[in-house]
Automatic annotation (TrEMBL):
Start and end residues of each Diphthamide synthase domain: 5-84
Entry-linked InterPro entries: Diphthami_syn_dom (IPR002761), Rossmann-like_a/b/a_fold (IPR014729)
Listed GO MF terms: ATP binding
UniProtKB keywords: ATP-binding, Nucleotide-binding
Pfam families (UniProt xref): Diphthami_syn_2
Top-level lineage group: Bacteria
Protein name: ATP-binding protein
First and last residue of the signal peptide: none
Species of the source: Clostridium perfringens
Amino acid sequence: MKKKFVMSYSCGKDSTLSLYRMIKEGHEPVALLITVDKKVLRSWFHGVPKDLLNQVSKSLNIPLLLVECQGEKYADAFKNALIKAKNELGAEG
């Protein structure tokens, strides 16, 4: 059964492979969820600049769901973004 999903995406090889496999299985990505360090505007885990994240989104034709957060509020911000993806984008997984 085809599902709409939001991808927690780090821009690394593992999340890229997971995204590829989900699409190959026939599922539809509704957004790339990427957490961004609020202070430096780079992705948390690989330090990718925000402008490059926009280019990745455009080249993959998958909208971004950027979550700007600080370390102490990371988990809450991530959880809220998942709820938003479910309610506003119809993500099921």
